[in-house]
Amino acid sequence: MTSRTTAELQALDAAHYLHPFTDHRQLAARGARVITSADGVWLMDSEGHRILDGMAGLWCVALGYGRKELAEAAHRQMLELPYYNSFFQCAHPPAIELAQRLTEVTPPQFRHVFLTGSGSEANDTMVRLVRHYWRLRGEPGRNVIIGRWNGYHGSTMAGASLGGMQPMHEQGGLPIPGIVHINQPYWFERGGELSPAEFGLRAARELAEKIEELGPRRVAAFIGEPVQGAGGVIIPPDTYWPEIQRICDHYGILLVSDEVICGFGRTGSWFGCEHFGTRPDLMPIAKAMSSGYLPIGGLMVADRVAEVLIDKGGEFAHGFTYSGHPAACAVAVECIDILRRERVVERVRDELAGHFAARWASLAAHPLVGEARSVGLLGALELVPARPARRFFGKRGEVGTICRDLCVENGVVSRAVRDTMICAPPLVITPAEIDELVARIGRALDQTAAVVARERRV
Ligand code: PXG
What we know:
458 residues, alpha/beta, Aspartate Aminotransferase, domain 2, four-stranded mixed beta sheet, four-stranded parallel beta sheet, 15 strands, 43% helix, 16% strand, binds 3-[O-phosphonopyridoxyl]--amino-benzoic acid
């Protein structure tokens, strides 16, 4: 692809390329790490370093890098029909095949999908569809959607509004009207003296309190990620989701399970809602749907909503040029077929999750770690100034950043969310690679502890 040196690439990058979620002065000073190729769970950078990708790209490369079948599916479709749309009474085979596949692998209430180019677009679609649905039902005043602080639902105006990331809200006058937030089920930070089970119920009941405060006939839907990903792999107590479901049922509001990260096997179930036992009405999906090989997302729509939309809705005035892009659909079809053929999800559930949980839990003995939690192939470590403790460093985020950089120096990608180290490797990782992942993070923790001790950061 390129014969340029790393320094040349970094200079051009700093000169011309605005990156997502990046401080550009910092980037220009350090120079970007340039990733040039990858295979399996291993990345290669422009300096020839091999790095274990503990984040599956951005939570998406479920099948790992270098899967020829996915590249060939795109290639075949590009030659046959590189683009056509599904507007104006048209369709094409890959979108139709994908829609059918999705209804086979999602829970039984889902027999329809609206295709998009990303998870953010799926959530924008959700906002439009939910409000349209309640108007069709004769309740146009039911237009408020409740999300959670520190939730993440994308970066478009609606996606960032549904999410509860304050720095995102501050840069753009968000949230848009009609979106409000409740607290997250983050026991480590917010549980106080309550047991996780008690705290899970308490956190869920904030939904009922918010509905009462707003007026039950104004609330259209509640949205949450089964496990908050970008917020720091926050795994709710077992009591949380059943209580949320009960409250949604009680008030008759729609439940939206944002499966952009948890979908397609991440938790060891096909979808996070199955792991936690909820019955959502709407499910945004993306990321592992195509293993990230091409951009695609979608909104799964349960029968109860789809019937109203189809019978009474007329034209749903919404859609994107790349809704159901043929090449992306062809890759997603192949990706789902591989997930099924190779029993990838079952292997996560029956073999890998247990091994990962045991190895990950071993990191809890480290003096810097206040909690090690995991579900499926999602893990988080809470870095703390002293153990045993649910305490935080004075200036949050500094130690996490040190640890993240040391992870890369030790040849492993792990993200830092404040001082929480997180991990979500490709679902095709082997047990031996899990051992390697944990060993490398362990080394980075030792080195981080040495820096903390030297600089006396508490
Ligand atoms: N919902 C959830 C739950 C997500 O995690 C989106 C929606 C938006 O999807 P798109 O495809 O529009 O990005 C996401 C995306 C991070 C990080 O830093 C997480 C995401 C995206 C970028 C960075 O963890 N999640």
